[in-house]
Every structure is written in C-alpha cells, then in structure tokens.
Known about the structure:
This protein is of the alpha/beta class. The chain has 17 helices and 13 strands.
Amino acid sequence: MLPQEIIRTKRDGGELDPADIADFVRGLTDGSVSEGQVAALAMAIFFQGMARQEAVALTLAMRDSGEVLSWPELDRPVVDKHSTGGVGDNVSLMLAPIAAACGLAVPMISGRGLGHTGGTLDKMESIPGYTAMPDNALFRKVVGSVGCAIIGQTGNLAPADKRFYGIRDVTATVESVPLITASILSKKLAAGLGALVLDVKCGNGAFMDNPERAQELARSLVEVATGAGMPTSAMVTDMNQPLASAAGNAVEVRNAVDFLTGKARDSRLQQVTLALAAEMLVSGGLAPNSEEATARALGALEDGSAAEHFNRMVADLGGPADFLADVDKHLGKAPVISECAAERQGYVTGYDTRGIGLCVVTLGGGRTRPSDPVDHAVGLTGLLPIGSRVEKDTPIALVHARDDDQVAEVRAQLRKAVRIGEEAPAASPVIMGRQG
C-alpha cells in the first residue's frame, strides 16, 4: 500500500477499495502512516465525501484496530445510546439506569467535553471515588450485576479513531459527516452492542446547526451502522436551548439525581430521556411499541428502581454507597454562587446555546484542548426555558464560580447569550425527527 496513492484517489473524487482503507487504518494504528498523510486524507474526504460502502469499510477497519468486546455471559439485550453533544445534556446519567431497570444491559462508553459541549465522563468524575476508566474485568462485573456502567473509552477500543480524531481536531476536518460517522460507530461497534440508539443534536448549541445537516448525519449514522451489522435508529433533537436547567459537571449530576429521585424534572429533558429510553427498549425487543416502552421507562422512574440502579452503579465503580441519600455531602460546591438577573422585563425568546456552553468553559468547567484540567464544581443552574416570563431583576441563572471576578465575566456573557423580548415565542418541538 502506498498511502499517497490512496490520498490521490480520494483527492480526485475516486472511490476507495475496502482493502486500501483497511491498510491505511492499519498504518494509522501502528504509526507507519505519517501525521501529514492522515491529515491529507482527512481533508480529501472532507471535500470529496465518501460513498456509503466506503464509510462502512472505514468504520469496520477502525473498529478492528483494537479490542472488540462481546457479552456472551449476559442474559439480557445489550443496547446503548450516543449523543452528538450539546449543552446541559445529562441524559445519559438518567437513561442508562432507566434502561437497566427495565431489563437492558447498557455498557455505555462515553467521552469528555471539548469546546462548548459537556462530556458525560467529566460529569461522572465529579463523583468522588468513581472509577471512570475501569479495567475490563470491573467493567464486565458492573454491567453484569447492575445492568449499566458509564465509563470512558480505553486505549484498547478503536485506537485508530483516537489518533484520527486528534489529527482532525487540529486540521479543521471534524465536521465531515462520513468521518463523524466512522468515529462514533467504530467505538460503539467495538463495544459489542446488539443495537444502538442515537441522539443527533440540532441547533445553535450543536455541531449540526441546521435540520438538513442534522438529518444528513442521522441518516449516515443509521445506514452505515446497519451496513456494518448493528441495528440502529436515530432521533434528531433540539439544541437551540440548554436541555437541562443546569450546565456544568457536578451541577448536572445534582440535576440528574433530582430527576431520578423525583425531586425536580425539567420538562424538555424528560421528553428526550423517555423518548430515547423507549427507543432502546423497542430496539432491544423488550417492548412492542413506543407507547408501552415509554410507560415502562416512566414506571422505572416512579417506583425508584432507576434511582437504585444509578446508586448501585456509582457504588460498584468506587463511588459513595450513600451517594443518592446524601448527594450534597459528596458533590463539590463552588465557593461563590451568585444570581445573574434580567435587565428588563419580558420573555425569554431564545438562547445562544453555544454561548451558554462557553460560559461554563470561562468558569473552568470545560476545556478547549483535550489536556485541559476541569473544575467540576463550577457551572450554571436555574437556566430558564424559552417562553419564561421575567421581570427586571428576575434571576435568569445562578453562577457557580471560584471568585467574584469569574462571576462578573460570566454575567456579561450570560446577558448576551439569553435573549429577552416583549412577546412570548411559539413553542417548538424538542424531538425534530427520526431515522431508522
């Protein structure tokens, strides 16, 4: 294999042979293909795209670059969910235990936040003692005994994707639909899933900011996953405002605990969580239709079994055994908590959702580079849904910060990111479409 010939073929709009794709990915994994050659192929794919069979071949080659898990010891369907990323998106923290309580096995391999989006792994690491990167033995044990485990990607799962993504990140090729597709699915296929449900975010807080692009990505993900032998469906959901009323790490965990225990449930967050749970149950063959599946998922919330599964998962992965019983004792709190008030009366008419995510980054709760440290305690709470009536001095959010200087900076950002107008806007759907 000559890497430069593979690059030339794609540069000129040709279709790559699956064997050539597999050879290139082997070189990507063992280092025999240079960083410049990887970047050149990524840019060629960015401009020329890939046929569906090429994307399937790339996905399978990256899956096979490392360990591929299987779950023969489990007596329940193995199903997972993946979100393309947003702001205030803590769905996974409720969804995994709900699905487990309903009879699914959920080996959820999650990522860290980057840029304006939050990361499930960072949220779980705000729980003291929680082992986010367990060895395979512990991972299997927890999935087998509890039914779910939320962990991070190990170096042995799809290592080609890790190198490829790192190069894409610094060469402005992240947004390529076939490359996003292969990156997401290679890791999910390596996890040994029987079925997958995808949450493709759409809006000004998502990587796909318009419905056409979001539907394109959803369609690509479903078709490539199906072509690779994994039944998959996708929902396109709104990310033109934060999904939860909290954005950050520990604050989103506390929001999830309130959701699981019934103390408080944000309406849009509940809609998305229950819809994805229903899709997982139908995909796993545990419910005949979405209506019955939704009722089962809601039942697991109301009877406390989902909360119990979450607490057991936390304890079995090294966190406090009484986490749900005394969450405030265990989660870190920012030294300064201060209101950001509306400067005029009216209605919340819209959000710069990316701007809300960047407020969290400003506070230290996000990262702009993979190596950046994260302050788990900081963030925003009390974010109002679009359509909320506010008076002058009504709090539009609470800022959880390290010091008053951070509060002042984030207040200014928040007032730009939260739009207030004279008339209440029309309600918009949180679930925008479906594929598969």
